Amino acid sequence: MGKLVISEFVSLDGVFEDPGGAGDYEHGGWSFEYDRGKEGGQFKLDEVMEAEAHLLGRITYDEFAAAWPSRAGEYADKLNGDPKYVVSHTLSDPTWNNTTVLGGDAVESVTRLRKQLDGTLLVVGSGTLARTLLAAELVDELRLMVFPTLLGRGRRLFADDSKRVKLRLASSTTIGTDGVQLQTYQRSSRSTKLA
């Protein structure tokens, strides 16, 4: 069974919206205002190299499909060549190569997909999907790159109505010169859904 990993850029107040500046959020591109050092880039490269496949929500898929196919380099080549799964009820004809649409119930579709994989299934961005998978106890690991900023407004990774999820801190390190934190959490005890 595959390992499901969620990886997110997040502010101190929990905002994850538009860290790269691809959308129209008032603070778009906020993550680029901070030095992550070589460690930050290496962390993201290691993460994509570890992935057997990528799982995306529709909004993140659209942003990635518009940006990554035209890029080259180790990270882009791996991402473009890997299998990609997008959870969507409206996407019918994906244009990004190696993309499969998962329709129907997201939890059931992802549960089936995890059983077919042996390696890491990586979720980046895709906040609604991430919250759904956390609530369904399907997530093995949560990786946060926490930036020392309070954005005030914007979509938060964890909504007010999120279900309680008990985690344990597996690792934490500070990178770059601005105090960006890499935090890795794992479920504190594996539920029957993960067994």
Fold and architecture overview:
The chain is of the alpha/beta class. The protein has a domain at 36-141: Dihydrofolate Reductase, subunit A (3-Layer(aba) Sandwich), CATH 3.40.430.10. The protein is built from 5 helices and 8 strands. It has helices spanning 37-50, 58-67, 74-81, 106-116, 127-135; strands at residues 3-11, 51-57, 84-87, 99-102, 120-124, 141-147, 167-175, 180-187. The protein has an 8-stranded mixed β-sheet, with helices on both faces. The longest helix has 14 residues, at 37-50. It is globular and about 40 Å long.
Characteristics:
195 residues, Dihydrofolate Reductase, subunit A
How are the SSEs placed, and which strands pair?
Elements lengths: L2 E9 L25 H14 E7 H10 L6 H8 L2 E4 L11 E4 L3 H11 L3 E5 L2 H9 L5 E7 L19 E9 L4 E8 L8
Parallel strand pairs: 1-5, 1-6, 2-3, 2-5, 3-4
Antiparallel strand pairs: 6-8, 7-8
Helix pairs in contact: 1-3
